[in-house]
Amino acid sequence: MKVTKANGEKEYFDADKIKAVFDRAVKGHEDRCSFEDLMGAFKKNLVEDIKTSDINKLLTKTCVDLVCVENIAWEHIAAQIFLGNVYKQAIKNRKMTLEDIYTPASYKSLFDEYIKNGLYYKDFYKHYSETDILEAGKHLNKNTDESYGYTTVLSLNKRYLCNPNKVTKELPQEMYMSLALFLAIPEPQETRLAFALKVYEMCSTQKISLPTPTLINARTNYNQLSSCFKINIDDDLRGIYHGVENMAQISKYGGGIGVYLGNIRSRGGMIRGIEGVSGGVNPWIKVVNDTAIAVNQLGARLGSISVTLDVWHRDIYDFLDLQTETGDIRSKAFDVFPAISVPDLFMKRVKENGEWTLFDPNEVQRVTGKKLQDTYSTEFEELYTTLEKDDRLKLKHTIKAKDLFKKFLKTTVETGMPYVFYRDTVNKLNPNKHAGMVYSTQLCTEICQNTSPTKFVEETIEDGKIILRYEPGDLVVCNLASINVAKVCDKETMQATFPVVMRILDNVITLNFYPIKEAEHTAMKYRSVGLGYLGLAEYLATHGMAYDSLEARNHVDDLFEQYTYYTYEASVNLAKERGTYGVYKGSEYDKGILLGHDKEWFVREKKMGQQWAELFDAMKAHGVRFAYHTAPAPNTSTAGIVGTTAALLPIYKKYFVETNLSAPTVRVAPKLAPENFWLYKEYINMDMNDVIDMMSVIYQWVDQSISFEWMIDPAKVSPAELYGYYVKSWEQGIKTVYYVRSLSGEVGEACVSCSG
């Protein structure tokens, strides 16, 4: 059989060359993977005149096809063969040899070339000397590349390496070093390089996981590093369209958005004294939906926008029909992500089989001078029950609470949404309730921070120019990073890692490009961050614990107490060095409260009581750097890069093929082996009650929320059981519910389902 070389010449297929590639890739796995097995599968796909450039691709594919639950070592071999091909392309494009890879000189050459061509940050050399870059190059570790799995190297190559037009030059360790150098820029000059090297080591070895915007944009001139944003829209034409313009600008730069629409008057409401003329919330959602479609990030993907409405809003039934298959197709909005805001009182009324009253927020404010949506907990319940008895409110409408909940459940099973935001649970534990209120969450449901609408002030003509003035509201920016639980699980590693990751997040706030000024204003006012976690399922299985066991829950409680302690310790130390956030005075921290508890509670109830006591004393003296600290995100894509299990959830399956923005990839439970095979509990086969119990344990240690995706099989889970999951979640302090994934495609009277 002949093959075709790059120059068009033909030569006979040489199995010895394949053997040489295999021998380099198989190191450490010789006992589990044989060349004979590889060639047996490889030859089935060989064709006459195959291009030599396609042979490595075919070799990689063959290794991936050999991956199974009995032998996951082939995944590592696939990674090394794939990586070898990446090296080969870089050598050719950079005109260097294999020995030049990751040398200081070759790194500086790439660094300088990328600055010259506008691919790297133009002002790097204002913060680093040429000697610094060469020194950084000395720390590039090729062995780290060899530790990566196939999903990691595939994702990095397809999406994250800075190689425009598919011309491979930047390599994985160079990517990590360059973004580390960028993220260290705010550090003092005398410690800047040393901190950059710490960031490099912890990110490249997968202890710290950075979100997609940071991985892609840090080190470039396009330094939008934030994952998502959260907006509160006012009930006037200027406010609404200003909010829509803000959404467009954010989508243009790749940010996901959560928008609260509970201020907008309902369908049939009054406008300028004329009754019955308002179109309600849904027409504005269609505008938001079309904005998400129109501003599509240079064709890369549609904008991603979540819209939230309160369950007492008079338009709630129309809202729940936004994406169902029934009703007028012209009223649908299929490209947004609906969410409902649920107060404690609604859940109580559902349990009691009581009545529920829907209101028009504009009428409530016009008649009473109060905004129901601006209250929570006891104050909300008192105002709500008063409004129910107020005969001046002509638009209020009373229904059975359970009927509305059934409608919600039906919509959830059909579409996987709406998401759920338990507003009273969130606001009662809001550490910054002195400065505002949390009205909704965002696209992935883990961010719970204060928002308020931007208010139009005036439009004037000054010196021949039209000037628009707004009173800025709080428009939230989500700055995220995550800890790999599977690698950061002992005291020494925790003590080294948490100060670094919190400094990274603080620097991200300083370095970030903000697509709109309200976002910058809010970021500097609160300096909020969202530290998350991933790899919990791997950690538990590889440490001999089943996810759904009491042992695991007790252990996780202890583990996350340590994580939380080191998070707040880093925040206090940063406040001592750099100052507190702008509205610290009057916060729960300022009052000596963390996570709803005072110093005495921590000392009395927790294992690290004495350490907590010392931390409270330090917080009293110095404050904290961040208004909000923790918000575990879904981490689906970045878990693949880090090579662990996603977020804090059980593993979806031990083995499956995932299709994402990079390419179809094989996902296998990390370090799967006979001794942990049955400890890897698959989410699709678990009791949701056990998962809710685990999340409830972790929620004690989270000051915002957790992106908590549910997995149900409608063939096995009855509507009554699904109802029970929501009640249990509310009762056990869960703050938000993300997607409800359905596994069955059957449609019936009691249960209509799709993939969600």
Summarize, please.
This protein has 756 residues and is α/β, with parallel strands linked by helices. It has three domains: 2-205, no CATH class; 206-227 and 481-708, Anaerobic Ribonucleotide-triphosphate Reductase Large Chain (Alpha-Beta Barrel), CATH 3.20.70; 228-459, Anaerobic Ribonucleotide-triphosphate Reductase Large Chain, CATH 3.20.70.20. It has a seven-stranded mixed β-sheet with strand order 14-5-6-7-8-11-22.
Task: Give structural notes.
This protein is of the alpha/beta class. It folds into 3 domains: 2-205, no CATH class; 206-227 and 481-708, Anaerobic Ribonucleotide-triphosphate Reductase Large Chain; 228-459, Anaerobic Ribonucleotide-triphosphate Reductase Large Chain (Alpha-Beta Barrel). Helices cover 44% and strands 12% of the residues. The chain contains 28 helices and 23 strands. Helix 24 (599-605) packs antiparallel against helix 25.
Entry keywords:
single chain, 756 residues, alpha/beta, Anaerobic Ribonucleotide-triphosphate Reductase Large Chain, 3 domains, seven-stranded mixed sheet, three-stranded mixed sheet, 28 helices, 23 strands
